[in-house]
């Protein structure tokens, strides 16, 4: 089923009350996921939020196929949702069997009945804090209308999360996300240091820190802080 402008307008009208904070955040996220699933007529939809160690964790899912994405991407440290989160851009994979971007993840995903993925990062203060995505068991060319629809749902999720983070009454989830945002600034700075020191890309710098964190069984934020502290004083300020 193609996603139409009329469908999206109707869905956003139904979800309009979420903008005013009348619905608890957990239920609001599930409503967004249920509506996304219905509009796209796919085999799974979900909303993932980053944890304190910058791993994407499922916050709301409509189907087991999307639920698989969390563990598959953590296990293989790659995948479309991770790419959307790290690169802060919409990621389309219409047929994983013909896509070479995430070889280890792809083999496992196809085995689990996931063939197509569309993932959109959730923005907050110039950073990404999670991902909204949909999956299909069949090849699925994502239309421009479908991409715009997912961006609309993502923006609504971002609005809800921003309201939660700015509220006076802090929840456990808000604390988790704020901690991730705070450490993200250090991680971005550390990436710049490593890029300058080793002449590598931002993604390679991130993977260097991730590998060290796994090897030493440490938090990614702690490894990043050490990188920043140990840089030569003559190094330029890091940034990406």
Assigned CATH superfamily of the largest domain: GAF domain
Helix content: 55-70%
For the largest sheet, list the strands in their spatial order.
Answer: 2-1-5-4-3
CATH class of the largest domain: Alpha Beta
Structural class: alpha+beta
Order of helices and strands: HHEEHHEHEEHHHH
Let me know the number of strands. 5
Cα Rg: 18 Å
Give the distance, in angstroms, between the N- and C-terminal Cα atoms.
Answer: 39 Å
CATH topology of the largest domain: Beta-Lactamase
Strand content: 5-15%
What gross morphology would you assign? globular
At CATH level 2, the architecture of the largest domain is 2-Layer Sandwich
Average pLDDT for all residues: 87
Uncertain stretches of 5 or more adjacent residues? none
Provide the domain count: 2
Helix run count: 9
The largest sheet, given as strand count, sense and whether it forms a barrel, is: 5 strands, antiparallel
Explain what the structure shows.
- With 240 residues, the protein is of the alpha+beta class.
- It is 55% helix and 15% strand.
- The protein has 9 helices and 5 strands, in the order H-H-E-E-H-H-E-H-E-E-H-H-H-H.
- Strands 2-1-5-4-3 form a 5-stranded antiparallel sheet, sandwiched between helices.
- Helix 2 packs antiparallel against helix 6 (144-166).
- The protein is globular and about 55 Å long.
- The model has no long low-confidence stretch (mean pLDDT 87).
Question: What is this structure's SSE topology?
Answer:
Layout: H1 5-14, H2 25-40, E1 44-50, E2 56-61, H3 64-76, H4 80-87, E3 91-93, H5 103-111, E4 116-124, E5 127-136, H6 144-166, H7 172-198, H8 202-216, H9 220-230
Antiparallel strand pairs: 1-2, 1-5, 3-4, 4-5
